Amino acid sequence: MTQSSSQLLLLQFVQLTIQGIDAEKFLQGQLTCDVTKLGLSYQAAAIGNLKGRIEFGIWIKKQAEQHYDVVISADCADALKAHLNKYGAFSKFETSSPIAIYPCVLDDMPTFSHKDTHNTPEDAQAWMQCSIATGNYWIISETQGEFQPQELRLHQRGGMDYDKGCYLGQEVIARIYFKSAPKAFLHHVQGSGEIPAAGDKLGKIQVVNAVASSLAAQGFEALVVARPEHLSESDLKIIDLPAALQADVARPK
């Protein structure tokens, strides 16, 4: 089995449904995004830990009043459900069992579908390549607790709200935003050699996700968290992310 084939086998997502009269209030105290602004399109968001790092990287949409659909990497689903049960023990909502959902590309954007027709290696490969090109990182069990949301430019994708009030990890995240800025942050790069695994270190550069290159016959493309000076000293080629993700990660002055 090639490493690329192995990646496709490991690329599995599930959806959990959270619904009940306390669903919105509970999620508002958990997620980095403003739950009251969610709609029918998937929004990248996160649940942080007390150190201000991403414990669960998710996509969420509001399906109906007090009804939210959450997509997460399948290997993190059990931990997420345990987390929801722990922190939501005194809130009135129910969490469904996870069901399969398939990564795909629609209208040139990475998304998810319940249709079996999208349960193909071609769809998974296209989703990974489109996700890396657009900064749509995905957190797996090996990278839980590794990255701070601002490092991954989540605030530039609408996945963080600095005015919504308290949530898990908010104190640390807000302190970084208002008093400093990450020195290392998300970049799209191209490299040669074998495809690195999520969480691998390439010297002082940490891999978030990687896939076989769509830009060259060999090598890989990756989303990495790195200081610009470390990238300039490496053999990696920097590729532009979308314009919204090219802005300075620091808070506008």
Largest sheet: 7 strands, antiparallel
Topology as a string of helices (H) and strands (E): HEHEEEHEEEHHEEEEHE
Number of helices: 6
Task: Give the helix level as a range of percent.
Answer: 10-25%
Instruction: Supply the CATH superfamily name of the largest domain.
Output: Probable tRNA modification gtpase trme, domain 1
What CATH first level of the largest domain would be assigned?
Answer: Alpha Beta
What does the radius of gyration come to?
Answer: 18 Å
Estimate the mean pLDDT confidence. 93
Q: Examine the coordinates and then state which fold CATH places here, giving the name of the CATH topology of the largest domain.
A: Gyrase A, domain 2
Architecture of the largest domain, according to CATH?
2-Layer Sandwich
Q: How many beta-strand runs?
A: 12
Indicate how many domains the architecture comprises. Answer: 2
Which consecutive residue ranges, at least 5 long each, have pLDDT under 50? none
Choose one word for the global shape: globular
Secondary-structure class: alpha+beta
* Beginning-to-end CA distance, first to last residue: 50 Å
Our estimate of the beta-strand percent is 25-35%
